[in-house]
Each structure stands twice: as structure tokens, then as C-alpha cells.
Prior knowledge:
With 358 residues, this protein is an alpha/beta fold. The chain folds into 2 domains: 8-265, TIM Barrel; 271-357, no CATH class. The chain has helices at 15-21, 62-72, 88-102, 119-128, 145-154, 175-188, 205-210, 226-240, 250-269, 292-302, 323-332; strands spanning 8-10, 25-31, 53-54, 57-58, 76-81, 107-112, 132-135, 163-170, 192-197, 244-248, 275-276, 282-288, 311-313, 318-321, 338-344, 352-357. The longest helix has 20 residues, at 250-269. It is elongated, with a radius of gyration of 23 Å.
Amino acid sequence: MKTPYFSFAVGELPKGCQLCVRGEKLVLFTTGACPRNCFYCPLSPWRRGDVVYANERPVKSTEDVIEEAITQEAKGAGVTGGDPLARLDRTVEYIKLLKERFGRDFHVHLYTTGALATKKNLEKLYDAGLDEIRFHPDLFNPSSKLFRVEIENIKNAFDFDWDVGGEIPAIPGQFERMEWYAEFLDKLGAKFLNVNELEYSEMTLKTLLEMGYEPVSDESAAIKGSLETGLKLLEWGEKNTSLSYHLCTAKLKDAVQLRNRLKRMAKNVAKPYMEITEEGTLRFGVAEYDDLDELYSFLVEEAEVPPEWLYINREKGRIEMPEEVAVELAEAVEGDVKFFVVEEYPTWDRLEVERTPL
């Protein structure tokens, strides 16, 4: 069936996905370290090291994780990497932290290659409170020794009372390997297999093009043939396995999951002079000038703008204000002052997505 989230499903979506599509899942990136080097891995260069992020926020202390979860009003977390098991103690610490702070109902799922999923390591994750584990073995390199280790380790997960599933990209030309993995999980008693539409990133585009893969269009990062491969697996899986399936599309990630997360965050971080748009971005006016203090004094004393409408953002070198105030000032103020209307994500990094000169 087609879901309301521009994705496709067989059976019920895993609990982690249900929360994710509503924007209720904190993305907890516990390390960029990984035992593998997949040709389709989209990680940016600055995340390939041993770093920790909560959504877009760099984590320097446990309080950063808690603060980000509160800002998002998160009801769960997806623990990812890299491979979170490559820094197991750290990952366990964060799972315990979230469970202790937000309660047992705060749902945590985790992605892993399986390479480090020994019985002892899985026991630590289970004892920490992990609710759902998703395995992504080196499915497209089945002759490697690491793949054989991963497949054996996946079997360990069924000794614990949590939801076990798989998560793989839909790679055109690799249907038989995907089919094999679905059968493998089904025989073990797994609950689901998530299939992601393959997308390129700045890190993978050159490699994917050299391998013969192409984007579906100039406007999309999705790879041609991936969606069709995923749909084919769902149709086969519905008839031949008892697994639930979710084909997560590129459109879901951008138009649904990210948008819903931004909207949850925006209402908690927006200042009084900011408008929250339908997309969850923050829209407001800015004025830029070499001397911000001089500009502030001019706007308050000469232009008679109420001080409560102005905010000096020294980090970004500008004075922020309601959009309509910036529009009026742009028509009235002469000289070197520049006025804009900007839209930003309500995220920690405040990514600017649009700037309109006035």
C-alpha cells in the first residue's frame, strides 16, 4: 500500500519509522567510525571521524543530547553512525541517559552493520533499554569475511526480547541479494525489512556515476531504478515472506520527516519577531552594516523602531527584526545599510535556505 508519507509498505511500519515520519525521532549519531566502507555511504567528510551529533548539533556533553531532544519534543531516538557499536560504551551511555531522562516509553532504535554484534555487546544494548535493532550487513559484497561474521552475529539478536529487522538500500541490479536477505531474516523470525531508495551525496556521486548509476533527474538525488527495485522486493516479499516492509523514499525524507521535525523545533526556538512557515522554517528580516551598535542606535533613536523588535546577532553580523519592519526600513533608509528577508532552519546550525534582498 502507499502510505500518507510518499512511501510504500507491506504490513505495519516499525515503531521507529512511525515516530520518524512524524518528526518525533531524535537522530543520535554516536560515531562516524565503521568497520566497512560502503560505496553508497552518504556521510559527509566532517562526520567520518569519531564525532557525536544530536540532529545537527555537535555533542560536547550529555546535556547537549538532552537539550536537543527537549527542543524537538522528541518521543524517541534513532541511534546511527558509522556503526554505533564501534563505540559501544558511549552508545550504551546515551541510551541509558535518554531512558532515564524521558522514561521507558521513549523509544530507541539502532542501526548496525552486525560486524560487532557479539552476544556480549548485544546484551549491553538490551540492558541499556534498546527497543529495536536494525541490521545492515555487507549484503552486496557476500564473498567478504566480514559479511560472514555479520550474518552469524545477526542470529545473536534473537536471544533478546526486542524488535529485530533489517535496513538496506534498494540497489538496481542487486534484487537477488535483497531477496536472499529477506528470506534469511524471515526464517530467523525478524519483524521487518526496511528498504531505502538509493540517493547520491556529494561524497558518492562520482563513484555511483562511474558504476553506471544515474540520478532520476536534475532536481532529485534519487538514483534511477532504485524505487522500482524496492517496489519489486515489496511485491515479492508480500507473497513469499511474513515480514513487514517499508520502502522509504527520498521524498519522504525531505517532504515529510524533515519538515515535521522542523515544525516541532520551530515553535520552541522561534523568537517573537520570527514567522514560522508551512515548511517549518523561520522567516524574518535582517539589516547588515559594518557597525552594528551604530546601526542599532540609529534604528531606535532616528527611525524610532521599538527596541523589543530588534535583536543584535553578532555571530552572524546582523540585526534581526520582523519581516514587515525590514520592508518598511528598506524603503526609508538610505546609505550602506542592506536589508534582506531570510529563511532559516530552526536547527542548531541555523542553515539559511533562502535570502531575498529588499
